[in-house]
Design a protein that fits this description.
Structural class: alpha+beta
CATH topology of the largest domain: Immunoglobulin-like
CATH architecture of the largest domain: Sandwich
Strand content: 35-45%
Helix content: 10-25%
Radius of gyration: 28 Å
Number of strands: 21
Length: 302
């Protein structure tokens, strides 16, 4: 490399370093970003609040809170504002994130969603569910466990289990309260994935071990199916992973809701009860429930 070329190369690198240094100096985070670029930051937050449709049906009706992550100066007096957003209350998890490019006149030139809010797996609910199931099994084992139900058509005998599945009930959302193993009470909620067309159907299921031995049950997506009037079958939702914390909604509250999910151990003469939930088209009718976990039985509704 000649001396002349070396000088030109050094000049280019110095110019590049100078530009990067200038950009780095203009980059700001959190409150510093809001203080350094108040007009652009305010414009981004106001635009986000007025245009929540970008967040999808689950978030667009929710009350949200926005936090400024950073502001980055770009060419032509444009500032890229990065935001995080999440529901104002009852949310535990990772916030959503997005950025907007704002010009000197505070007009939004571009907007991009990076992540949507992701709620944590409800570990506390898992503890609550396990505690509730164990409590139900222990308490009921002290009672008169097995008796003639007088021809109740919702009671069906399998090889080892007596199974009772109450009439399915359908509503748009399900909410309930439950305490974790430490006694802290939370409000929990479930909603259908397709809110425009579907609703949630819940069924209270009671399982009775009529034998003298121990029955180990795994209650999951393959343990039961619910058939509608067109004989289409639906698997249950995971009532542990599908829930999230939410504000109380009395109109959707299901009294005594205890999720029936996971591994359950029933000794001879014990029984356990809980709710199973399905997502089905709004206004569905119900023909039968087929139980297949550790036994097989069919409860007919029509």
């Amino acid at each position: 490399m000649t001396e002349e070329n070396r000088t030109e190369q050094e000049a280019v690198e110095e110019s590049k370093d100078s530009h990067e240094s200038s950009s780095t100096q203009g980059f700001a985070f959190g409150e510093d970003a809001a203080n350094k670029y108040p007009d652009q930051v305010n414009a981004a937050i106001e635009y986000a609040a007025a245009n929540k449709y970008e967040y999808g049906p689950r978030m667009r009706e929710a009350e949200l809170t926005w936090d400024v992550v950073s502001a980055e100066p770009m060419a032509n007096d444009i500032v890229r504002v990065r935001l995080e957003y999440s529901p104002t209350s009852g949310f535990r998890g990772d916030p959503g994130s997005e950025y907007m490019d704002i010009d000197a006149g505070c007009a939004v030139l571009a907007r991009r969603q990076i992540n949507v809010p992701k709620e944590n797996s409800p570990v506390l609910l898992m503890g609550f569910t396990a505690f509730s199931v164990v409590l139900a099994v222990v308490m009921i084992s002290l009672m008169t466990v097995f008796k003639d139900e007088g021809g109740d058509p919702l009671y069906v005998a399998g090889r080892t289990l007596w199974i009772r599945a109450e009439e399915p009930k359908q509503q748009q959302y399900i909410t309930y309260t439950g305490a974790d193993v430490d006694g802290t009470v939370y409000n929990w909620a479930m909603k259908p994935l397709d809110e425009a067309n579907n609703e949630l159907t819940y069924v209270k299921v009671t399982l009775i071990n009529q034998t003298s031995g121990t029955v180990n049950l795994v209650v999951d997506e393959s343990s039961v199916t619910l058939l509608d009037g067109d004989r289409a079958d639906y698997e249950p939702l995971n009532t542990i992973e599908s829930v999230y914390t939410a504000e109380s909604a009395p109109q959707y509250n299901v009294p005594g809701f205890v999720p029936l999910w996971g591994t359950v151990k029933l000794n001879g003469g014990e029984q356990v009860s809980g709710m199973m939930v399905f997502e089905m088209p709004r206004g569905s009718s119900f023909t039968e429930l087929r139980w297949t976990a550790s036994d097989s039985a069919t409860i007919k509704y029509q």
